[in-house]
Amino acid sequence: MDKEAFASVVLSSTDSLYRISKSILKSDADCEDAVQEAIATGFDKLGTLRQEAYARTWLTRILIHECYSLLKKREKSAAMLTEPEEEAYDSTDYSELYEALSTLKKEYRLTIVLYYLEGYSINEIGKIMRVPVGTVKSRLSRGRRDLRCIMERADYEKEEQYENEL
Fold first, then answer.
1. For each of the chain's 166 residues, which pLDDT tens digit applies?
2. CA R_g for the chain
3. Strand, coil or helix: what is 36?
4. Where are the beta strands (DSSP E) in the chain?
5. What is the DSSP letter of 144?
6. d(CA 103, CA 119)
7. If residue 105 lies in a helix (H) or strand (E), which one and from where to where?
8. How far apart, in Å, are the Cα atoms of 24 and each of 1, 12, 17, 47, 162?
9. CA dihedral in degrees (113, 117, 119, 122; nearest 10)?
């Protein structure tokens, strides 16, 4: 694959890459950094891409690896501080669904985002995450179950709050 063809893959995938990074990282700045690093790494390692048809999947795998690398770096730097600070989370900027997604376990959240938002097949997700297909299916099932419970709990709390206001 030449660099122009890869550039068109990158341009058509930027929104998708950002959403995937957002499912792992909470900070917008970290997401932007991870996407930029993944694209740069992709350009550098373009010769290692075996099949052009899998360029988007390959770039997604690089992005996921970069996101986890950023998380590890953040954990190491937080451990060096005497008083770790929690990252401020402004819930007004995100939808209820995103808030619910952000409370899921990482592997459930990433699997749900890849499957439902990005449209990857179960087999592709298995390759991206380097897990068996059965694991992908169970993570989707458990993630949906947990997400349903979280959303139902949020609806119940809203109803209670509404009734208390009356």
1. 788 898 999 999 999 999 999 888 888 888 999 999 999 999 999 988 888 888 999 999 999 999 988 888 877 766 555 444 444 444 444 577 778 888 888 889 989 988 988 889 999 999 989 999 999 999 999 999 998 998 888 877 777 777 777 6
2. 18
3. helix
4. none
5. H
6. 22
7. none
8. 29, 21, 11, 27, 33
9. 30
Among the listed residues 74, 75, 44, the one whose alpha carbon sits nearest the alpha carbon of residue 62: 44
Q: Are 27 and 90 in contact (CB under 8 A)?
A: no
Amino acid identity at 37: E
Q: Provide the 10 A C-beta neighbour count for residue 165.
A: 6
- For 155, the token pair is 């609806």
Token pair for residue 85?
Answer: 């600070």
Sorted by sequence, the CB contacts under 8 Å of residue 52 that are 6+ apart come out as 1, 5
Angstrom distance (rounded) from CA 137 to CA 156: 29
The pTM (predicted TM-score) of the whole model is: 0.68
User: Which candidate, 96, 25, 93, 101, places its Cα nearest to that of 65?
Assistant: 25
The rounded distance, in Å, linking the Cα atoms of 90 and 137 is 32
For residue 141, give the amino acid letter.
S
